[in-house]
Design a protein that fits this description.
Blueprint lengths: L2 E6 L7 H15 L3 E6 L14 H4 L7 H11 L2 E7 L7 H9 L12 E7 L9 H12 L5 E8 L12 H12 L3
Parallel strand pairs: 1-2, 1-3, 3-4, 4-5
Helix pairs in contact: 1-6
Length: 180
C-alpha cells in the first residue's frame, strides 16, 4: 500500500468537496493506505513570481505555507487533489498551489499516481473536463507521474449538501478504496 496525500482546496466552511474527501479518505484507509490530508483553509500561499530560483535550489524564495506543502507532496507516493469546480475550472487556490510546486521538478519526488475528486453545482459529466485537463498538464511535467483517475460529483450547491447524496458519498468511498 502507499502513502497517500489528500489536498483539499476548498476554502468554504462545510464544503461538499471536504465532505466527499473525508469519505475518500475512509475508503483509502480501509484499503490499507497510509493517508495524510492537508486543507488549504487558513494557509498563506502566495502567487509564484516566476523567478525560477527554485530550479537551482529546490526551494522557493517565498517563505509561506506552500514550502511545507511542497515537501509533503514530494514525499507522498499518491496524490489526490480535491477541488470545487468554479466556472468549469479548478479552484484558484488549487492552481496557485500547483504553480508553487515548481521546486519539485528537479527533485527526486516520490509521487507516481495523481488523482482528482471534483464537485460542482452542475451535473453534466463534462463539467470537470477543463479542471482535469489543467491537472493533467501539471502531471505531464513530471515524467515519473501519471494522471491515474478522477471522480466528478455534480448537483451540489448548498453548504453540506453532500451529506444527503448517498450515491456520491459511496462513489467517493469506492474511489478512495481504488487508489494505487
Amino acid at each position: 500500500m502507499s502513502r497517500v496525500l489528500v489536498i483539499k482546496t476548498s476554502l468554504r466552511a462545510k464544503s461538499n468537496s471536504d465532505i466527499l474527501a473525508e469519505r475518500l479518505i475512509e475508503g483509502a484507509k480501509d484499503a490499507g493506505h497510509e493517508v495524510e490530508q492537508i486543507s488549504l483553509k487558513g494557509k498563506n500561499i502566495k502567487f509564484c513570481i516566476g523567478c525560477l530560483a527554485c530550479q537551482k535550489t529546490q526551494k522557493c524564495v517565498q517563505g509561506d505555507d506552500a514550502v511545507e506543502i511542497a515537501e509533503k507532496v514530494k514525499n507522498a507516493e499518491t496524490l489526490v487533489f480535491v477541488t470545487p469546480i468554479y466556472y468549469y475550472e479548478m479552484s484558484g487556490q488549487m492552481k496557485t498551489l500547483l504553480d508553487r510546486l515548481n521546486p519539485l521538478y528537479t527533485t527526486n519526488y516520490k509521487f507516481r499516481n495523481v488523482y482528482m475528486l471534483s464537485v460542482a453545482a452542475e451535473e453534466e459529466e463534462s463539467t470537470s473536463e477543463k479542471a482535469e485537463s489543467g491537472l493533467e498538464g501539471w502531471v505531464d511535467c513530471f515524467e515519473e507521474a501519471v494522471f491515474a483517475g478522477r471522480l466528478f460529483c455534480g448537483g451540489m450547491t448548498g453548504m453540506g449538501e453532500a451529506l444527503g447524496k448517498e450515491d456520491s458519498l459511496n462513489d467517493a468511498y469506492d474511489f478512495g478504496k481504488s487508489l494505487e
